[in-house]
Structure formats: structure tokens, C-alpha cells
């Protein structure tokens, strides 16, 4: 499923992404707030769904090869997080949905 479709399903507001990122293929969703848990995952082309609005989420997404980071629970990532996402070329978005509701919406869209 492409990133644009998944962001739409989660009612996400894109904070940073290049137009070419919209067509990026997502195969899995990782919903986690403990970045150490994310680092143990071995999934191809995941979307990181988290309520952690810090640079650590972007750094972790970059390390595991995540397609993008989606921050849930209505949190607004600080400018430093957006700047790091841009620097590391990791699309970043936010949603007002809870992490649970966003995970359900993403799962339904991915037919999980």
C-alpha cells in the first residue's frame, strides 16, 4: 500500500515529505513507543506509528529503514524533529487519532 493512502486512512497531516514519498510502498506497521522494541523488529518497509514526538523516533525509523513516521495522539512534533526528518529523508506526519485508532485504520487499509 502506498504511503499517501495510509496517511489518508489515518487522517494524517503531513509535516514533511517529498512528493516522491507519496508512492512509497509500505508493507508493515510498527506501533510502538519504546524505540528499543522497534530496533528488535526485522520487517521490510514498515511505517512507524508512535506517540513519541522526539528526534529519537526519527533516528530509529532511519536505522530500521522505515518508510515514514506517523505521530499519534494529536501530538505536534517539535521543529527539531521535523528538521531531522528532512535531513534523514524520513517522511513525517501527525494524526489526532489515538495510536490505537490509527493502528486500526492502518490495519484495515492494509487488509490485516
Provide a concise account of the structure shown.
The chain is an alpha/beta fold and 112 residues long.
Low-confidence stretches: none
The whole-angstrom Rg is 12 Å
The counted number of beta strands is: 5
Give the % helix: 25-40%
Quaternary organization: single chain
- Specify the number of helices: 5
Shape: globular
Which sequence of strands runs across the widest sheet? Answer: 1-5-4-3-2
Main sheet: strands, sense, barrel: 5 strands, mixed
Structural class from helices and strands? Answer: alpha/beta
List keywords for this structure.
alpha/beta
Can you characterise this structure?
- With 112 residues, the chain is an alpha/beta fold.
- The protein has a five-stranded mixed β-sheet with strand order 1-5-4-3-2, with helices on both faces.
- The radius of gyration is 12 Å and the shape is globular.
- It starts with a helix and ends with a helix.
- The mean pLDDT is 97.
Amino acid at each position: 500500500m502506498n504511503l499517501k493512502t495510509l496517511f489518508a486512512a489515518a487522517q494524517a497531516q503531513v509535516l514533511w515529505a517529498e512528493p516522491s514519498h507519496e508512492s512509497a510502498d509500505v508493507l508493515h506497521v510498527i506501533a510502538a513507543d519504546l524505540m528499543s522494541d522497534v530496533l528488535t523488529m526485522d520487517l521490510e518497509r514498515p511505517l512507524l506509528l508512535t506517540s513519541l514526538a522526539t528526534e529519537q523516533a526519527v533516528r530509529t525509523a532511519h536505522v530500521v529503514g522505515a518508510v515514514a513516521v506517523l505521530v499519534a495522539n494529536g501530538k505536534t512534533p517539535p521543529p527539531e524533529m521535523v528538521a531531522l526528518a528532512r535531513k534523514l529523508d524520513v517522511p513525517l506526519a501527525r494524526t489526532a487519532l489515538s495510536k490505537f485508532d490509527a493502528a486500526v485504520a492502518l490495519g484495515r487499509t492494509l487488509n490485516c
